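Input sequence (121 aa), recorded before submission:
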Amino acid sequence: QVQLVESGGGLVQPGGSLRLSCVASGFTFSSYAMSWYRQAPGKERELVASELVATITSAYGSTNYANSVKGRFTISRDNAKNTVYLQMNSLKPEDTAVYYCNTRISRSAYWGQGTQVTVSS
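Predicted structure, token format:
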């Protein structure tokens, strides 16, 4: 059974940093790309419409980022710990959202429960 468990969210001031973690289980973690999505407040819960923040592939660890976070966020993975991270620096109020870990296996998408990130002074 695939499980994704996020942690590391919280309240941070503009310009601050947070590191999110997602621990995966129930599948061969090293074989699959991992992504982070986010869903801003006030939006209907539609995960398929969430913004793709960052992706790291399985084979070479190549990464892809949304334009809104390039240069500020870094996705990384530790296959020995079945964990994917999202280092978020220079946070802005518009980064406030629930952040979700995601993977796609065959034709199915799997999501964690989400972790709230609030950027406010």
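Checked by second reader. Residues 41 and 79 are 32 Å apart (CA to CA).
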